[in-house]
Each structure stands twice: as C-alpha cells, then as structure tokens.
Amino acid sequence: MITSFKSLILLCFCVATFAVFQRFRRQRARSALVTQHGCKGVSQYPHKDRWGADLARLRKEAQKEGKFTALYEKHFATYGKTWQENFYGLKVINSIQWENFQEAGTSLAPYLSRAMGANKYAKPFLGKGITTTDGAEWKYARNLITPTFARAELSDISRLVGFVDKLIELIPRDGSTVDMQPLIHRMFFDITTDFVFGKSMNSLDSDTQSDIERFSTAFDRALAGVGQRRLAGNLSGIRFMFDADWKQAYQVVHAYVDERVRVALEATSSDNRNTAMSKDNSSPTRYILLDEMAKQICDPVALRYQILAVFTPGRDTTAILVSNVLFHLARNPQIWADLRETALALDPATLTFESLKSLKNFQHVIFETLRLQGPSGRVVRRVERDIVLPRGGGPDGQAPILVEKGTMLDLNLSCLHLDRDIWGEDVHVFRPARWRGSKRPLWEFVPFYGGSRICPANQQVLTQACYTLVRLVREWRRIDNRDPVQEYVEEKRMTTQSRNGIKVAFLHD
Q: Going edge to edge, which strands form the sheet with 478-481?
C-alpha cells in the first residue's frame, strides 16, 4: 500500500516536472522568436469581463442593426489595424494589415487551420469539403475541384444565355418597382444546379413550385444557422443545444443532394462504364460536375459534402455580387449610362470570356462593389504552431508580433477594403473611377482571399456577373432606386447581402 502510494507520488512528480520543463522550453523558444524578429506587443481590447462577453454582445447588437462591419471599422480605428481580443476564453488576433494577409496566405498557410473556424460550426451541414478541411483532405478536395474551373467549357458563356433571358422576361417593363435580389438569387440557383447536377431546377419558371421553395428556404436556414454558431463561439453548443429547426433544415438539403448523388453513382458503376466505353464517344459530351466527381468518389456521404462545397458558394456568391452592383448603379445613374454606351457597341452573340474581361468599365464597377461588399467578410484560422506576423506590434503597429499556438487569427477582408491609407478618405463612396489607370492591388484587395486558398471559382464569378450586367444595361436605358433607405444595410449569414433587398425600377425613357 505504501509502495503504491510512493509510486503514485513519484509519477505525479515526474509528470509535473515534465510539464514545467515543456513550458520552460516553449517559453524559451518564444523568447528566441521575439528577439530574432524584433517582435513587440499588440494592442489589447479593453474587456469589461474576463470572458469577452461584452464584445460578443456588441457584435450581436450590431448584427441585428445591420452594422456589423461598421462596428469592426470603429474598433480598428480605435485600437489599431491589428489588435487582440478574448473570445470566450480564446485569444483572437484581428488584423487588416495587408502584409499579414500576404504572409498568412503564403508562407504561413501550412500552419493555419480551420479547426476552430468553418469546420467546427458548419460540420453537421457541410461536412468535409474544400471549404472546411485542412492538410491532405483539403489538398484532395482542391485537386478534385480546381480542374473544373480551368476547363475550356467555363470560357463558353452560351449556357448563361437562356437563364439571363428568363430573368429579363420577369422584370416589369412598365416602370413598376421590383426587388431584384430574390430574382437574381433564383437565376443563379438555376445556373448552379445546372452546372453541378446537369439539370436546372428552373426556379425562375414559376413562383409556386413548392419543392424548390422548400429546398431554398431550408438552404437559407442552414446557412443562417452556421453564421449564428460562429458568432456564439464556444457557447454555441449550449445556446443552440435544442435548435431542432437547424438540423431539420440541413437534412432537407442533404436529402435533395443525396438523391442526385445516388443517381450519379449508379450511372458510373462498373457495368455502366463498360457499356459507355463500347459506344461511339467521338462526339463531345457536356461536363457535369457531379458525374465527374462520382467517377472518383464512391462514398455517397463524402461525395455529398464535396458537392455541397461547390454548390454553396456557387448559389450565393455571384447572386449577391450582381445584386449589390445593381444596388449601387440604382444610386449612380450616370455610371449606368456609361456602361450602357459600352454595352450597346457589343454584339451579345459574340461575347466570350476574353471579351468580357476586356470591358474595363464593367470590371471597375464589379471591383468597386466587391471592395464595398465582398462575398466573404472575414477569414478565420487557428494557429497550429507559434508564428510571427510582420505587422501589428508596437505603438505604431509596424513591428512584427508573436502569435502563439492555439490563437485564432481573424483577417478582416471587409475592413481591409475600407482602409483609408490604401483607398483614400472616400472609402465609403462608390467610385469605380478609382480603378482607372492604376495597377490592380494585390494583397490590398482580396475579395476571394489569395494564395493557395483563393476561391477556385473566382474567374467564373466575375465572368457570370459581367455577362449578366452587360445584358441588363443593353435592355434598359436607365435604372431607378425605389428603396427609401439609401444606405446599405447588412444581413449576415455565411455571406452578407442587403437586408432591404434591391428595390429598383427599369425604364426605357
């Protein structure tokens, strides 16, 4: 008995000694990094409680008021371009210094993970896909998806024509008010289902298709649930413990995708592949994402999540971009007139990926919209080993800072694009002319992030948005704002869109 007790004491002593030694070694290594790089302290948010609940409450209220980005702007102006907070016990480094974005997106990328970001809060809905994984799993997903957006078929915009034709048919021609946001969402929902599944849901054809409405509503609810859980942080498990609606919503989405996955897997079975090989395959076949991925992934659940990783941004990103462009053009009629003059000189039947990229004034309007309201407001990563960021330390924020393992790095894209030192004092003014005659910024403008983690569909987004705008400005002489609220009010889900919709009128005179 005494021997056992002594052994236990000895074991505890050894464990404690080892822990102290490990801590000493870790602190020594950190001190060496600080000395080597000249690191200095980072500005701290003055919390009123030890858990950071005060700041979380401020953000919750700001989100309700549609002023989430404005609150972050205020804090960056007050505490510096890089500052630290406590988010329910987690250290968080917030930054808008482009040098930190560049370092995080390139040399430091292997040491940053989504472990406490998208994966944690979106896993029940989105599972393991390119947007929620790291390391080997992420490389596998990216190698599956990236070639899709490099194929020549995506340079051919012919498949967009019919969808934009349907959209134009639904726009009133008598000058009455229309909310373009839901219409544009429906159009890109159709485009995305056509591209991913090989068959469009044709939601623009009817307002009374209950299955489409059920799926779309469930998808919106599932996305909103992810956003709510991110905002709640470590308390999300408690706050949403009994949220059965969210589970029901993403199960509706899963059921829709699973049925199409089942069909695709059956079609690519060995018997079917052998039959297909015996047929004359000299004629070109259409590229369908699900069918191609089904040839490489046999697990239906894994295939579901890989498809959702493409479908989710495809459904929302371009729709929100085009809607936001119309929001600004309705408040800037002269810019619409300038675009129309360019568009009328074009032959829509001959438009190509290359010719759309050459339309500088359209590109400038799109870039300026992305600067003011990008598809993703923040990039959040967990630091998996001690790293050094090049900016954020000292009184002027220009010295390097040490970021310890386990810290969350929150790179705020929205506020980077509103940095007066980069964009001038008129950062909140929609002014596409700021892009004229200047080289496009690199890490100062990253609406799709950058480095190896850049959105693989970014060129597809820009092409589809530009084509849609060319068709619209050719069709109508002018666009009028019909929203009594002039400013942009945010509605945050996983993405950010206009809470008030895009209420406009299209006119011929």
A: 178-179, 503-507, 478-481
Are 363 and 357 in contact by the 8 Å Cβ rule? The answer is: yes
CA-based end-to-end distance of the chain: 98
- Cα gap 91→63, rounded to integer Å: 22
Q: In the predicted model, is pLDDT for residue 272 greater than 60?
A: no
Q: DSSP secondary-structure letter at 129?
A: S
Q: b/e string for 263-284 if b means 16 or more Cβ within 10 A? A: ebbeebeeeeeeeeeeeeeeee
The region, left, alpha or beta by phi > 0 then psi within -120 to 50, assigned to residue 26 is alpha
Host H or E run for residue 66: none
| Tokens of residue 136, six digits | 């080997």
Q: Residue 473 in contact with residue 336, Cβ under 8 Å?
A: yes
CA torsion, ordered 226, 228, 232, 237, to nearest 10 deg: -60
Q: Is the pTM of this model over 0.70?
A: yes
3-state helix, strand, coil in the chain (%, to 5): 60, 10, 30
316-344 pLDDT, tens per residue? 899 999 999 999 999 999 999 999 999 99
How many CA atoms does the CB half-sphere of 202 hold within 13 Å?
A: 6
CB-CB contact of 87 with 119 (8 Å): no
